[in-house]
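Project outcomes to date are best conveyed with an example. Our students and postdoctoral researchers have been running inverse folding experiments weekly, and each run begins with a structure described purely in tokens. The record below, which covers 315 residues, was selected by the lab manager from last quarter's runs and is presented without edits.
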């Protein structure tokens, strides 16, 4: 038996945000620079509250601060406008404040707007929260925002979506529905890079969110977090960790994934911490490893990390 869950309303299309009638007294959660980037003019809110200090890799402290700062205001809805970090904070606040959540991604990759997952730091460690109450009531996917995305952010977000759909395709929790979405997602994302069509990337990221959000990511994601802890961005780490994982799993996406990564030209990454300690940490990540199509041992993990560190090319 399989259950499929997603936000109750999903709106997508270029310029869909300004066509939306937002209620009064929304709490807009976003990141610094939202105003300079013209987002506030574009969304056209009336009588709203704003928190525009969401940091990268946000912590639960930010969520608590927002709830404290706005607890005496009559908030109608919570709107998250930004990248994955902003959306994760907004969905957690909306859930805690018991308000409806409207999520609008401005970078396309995390799929956060359509999933029940929020990643927040607790005690300085990234933790992922999975709960149906984290779903957006409405997700608005407007490709307008991708036009001005800096190259580096575009690349990192793209790889996240690409890793999510291809790991999701292989996940043990997968089913016909998730495989359908993951497969289409990969096709749209790949086509987006080959034909330089950003619209296609936006759709690919959306489909990837629906696909992996209803199964899971696997080994590639499990391996990536030790790199993130050393300051390497999520997408950049996945460019390498998902490549070696696809090879390990004999994934049908190995070659296509590797070729796209090559095209995007990422700097090699190196793990500073001891591989033995890293593998212990990674092995604890049962949420990802239990859904991996192949059993993974501590030795396997050390070998995979070593391939990344020594910049070996996989054939
Ligand atoms: Zn991811």
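After processing, the design step wrote out the following sequence:
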């Amino acid at each position: 038996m399989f259950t499929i869950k997603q936000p109750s309303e999903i709106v997508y299309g270029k310029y869909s945000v300004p066509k939306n009638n937002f209620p009064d007294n929304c709490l807009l959660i976003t990141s610094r620079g939202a105003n300079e980037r013209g987002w506030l003019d574009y969304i056209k809110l009336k009588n709203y509250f704003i928190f525009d200090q969401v940091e990268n890799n946000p912590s639960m402290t930010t969520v608590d601060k927002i709830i404290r700062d706005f607890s005496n205001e009559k908030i109608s809805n919570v709107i998250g406008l930004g990248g994955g970090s902003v959306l994760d904070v907004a969905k957690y606040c909306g859930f805690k404040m018991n308000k409806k959540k409207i999520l609008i991604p401005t970078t396309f990759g995390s799929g956060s707007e359509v999933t029940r997952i929020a990643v927040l730091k607790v005690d300085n460690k990234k933790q992922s929260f999975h709960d149906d109450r984290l779903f957006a009531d409405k997700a608005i996917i407007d490709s307008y925002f991708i036009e001005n995305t800096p190259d580096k952010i575009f690349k990192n977000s793209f790889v996240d979506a690409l890793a999510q759909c291809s790991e999701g395709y292989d996940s043990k929790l997968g089913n016909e529905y998730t495989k359908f979405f993951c497969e289409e997602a990969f096709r749209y994302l790949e086509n987006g890079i080959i034909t330089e069509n950003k619209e296609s990337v936006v759709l690919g990221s959306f489909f990837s969110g629906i696909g992996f959000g209803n199964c899971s990511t696997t080994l590639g994601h499990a391996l990536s977090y030790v790199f993130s802890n050393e300051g390497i961005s999520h997408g950049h780490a996945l460019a390498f960790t998902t490549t070696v994982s696809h090879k390990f799993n004999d994934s049908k996406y190995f070659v296509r994934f590797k070729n796209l990564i090559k095209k995007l030209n990422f700097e090699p990454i190196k793990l500073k911490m001891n591989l033995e300690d890293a593998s212990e940490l990674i092995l604890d990540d049962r949420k990802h490893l239990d859904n991996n199509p192949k059993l993974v041992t501590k030795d396997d993990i050390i070998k995979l990390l070593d391939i990344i560190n020594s910049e070996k090319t996989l054939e």
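The radius of gyration is 19 Å. Residues 151-170 form the longest helix (20 residues). The training component of this project remains on track.
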